[in-house]
């Protein structure tokens, strides 16, 4: 088999890249180790920045998103038992974000890919990448045959590593060619999805002495809530009742009174990590999305960064095939990393501001509250939060 771009991973990064390339007439095959249903079953991100909304429109799959997505022009920060609204719209000259689940975005992209008759190989086993330092990279995988182990090979011009944090592409690069920066936080997020109306029409980010809480949503009838929990906690330790009880204790009296509880549809614990790989290009192999970087989820940046990486990557490939220029390819890593580090900085800072760090003691809590008090009362402070949350422009600083 031969293709122009072999994409590893059918998460948001791989699927969006596939669609951007298809629109530009560039041939690509996606290899995914799981089934499509498994990929759709992972409940993850919920907030799209304008750049991600624009990309969905650019590839022609934005109809359902505009119909069902909820526009949010602000969010609440809760501390010392009181809520304060950050008016993103007002503070950024009219910008907003959209509540639209990663599951929905993934479904829209998968359906468009299927409708266009494009090749996605699901349940591709033992994917390996070869010769990406040469002009003729190859990808091998196992599928079909005896025990699903027949080996297939794809020849390609480029490999796009969109295979997430635990993927094979980054892991295939020799240690001497890569630098990794990492911070692991001493807590995780316990998330619950429930068929209940959201406690508030916008998101609430709560700093409480008992730990961080986030009230999010997927629709007017479906809520997504998160609690900061010790890394040692297991999902089984948390009954639905215990979850709702702890959430109540981290909210203000009004939200507590409005909280509608119900059975959880999904419950999981995600560890928090800041992680960046430098560079993001190795010869003819490129990393994009979680394969190259992880942000702690507090700033809602992970999915949005994956989207901008593949926007830059598709532009580079388009330039290569249409104009025979390698300029975009040469600048890909540097261009992405500048945006990545900005989002890493915001996500790290927002995580530090909102979570309980027991090792910082009571003074840590007091200092966070003083900073929050400053931020909500200073226009400059509030604007800084707002402009980072809605996402800095693609050409910021250029
Ligand atoms: P993934 O979604 O991880 O996709 C990678 C794909 O590659 C997977 O389908 C995987 O099965 C496949 N794969 C892996 N290895 C191989 C292999 N060897 N061979 C073939 N296929 C392989 N981001 C936001 O922007 N906003 C939010 O509000 C937000 N909230 C979040 C909340 C939680 C609880 C979590 C966990 C994450 C959140 N994120 C958020 C982050 C966001 O979900 C990720 O950044 C996003 O999924 C990255 O997409 P991706 O395509 O790069 O990687
Ligand atoms: C959601 C997740 C986030 O990390 C965040 O900052 C906001 C919302 C969510 O899953 O809805």
TrEMBL record:
<feature type="domain" description="FAD-binding">
    <location>
        <begin position="2"/>
        <end position="347"/>
    </location>
</feature>
<dbReference type="InterPro" id="IPR036188">
    <property type="entry name" value="FAD/NAD-bd_sf"/>
</dbReference>
<dbReference type="InterPro" id="IPR050631">
    <property type="entry name" value="PheA/TfdB_FAD_monoxygenase"/>
</dbReference>
<dbReference type="Pfam" id="PF01494">
    <property type="entry name" value="FAD_binding_3"/>
</dbReference>
<protein>
    <submittedName>
        <fullName>4-hydroxybenzoate 3-monooxygenase</fullName>
        <ecNumber>1.14.13.2</ecNumber>
    </submittedName>
</protein>
<dbReference type="GO" id="GO:0018659">
    <property type="term" value="F:4-hydroxybenzoate 3-monooxygenase activity"/>
</dbReference>
<dbReference type="InterPro" id="IPR002938">
    <property type="entry name" value="FAD-bd"/>
</dbReference>
<dbReference type="InterPro" id="IPR012733">
    <property type="entry name" value="HB_mOase"/>
</dbReference>
<keyword id="KW-0560">Oxidoreductase</keyword>
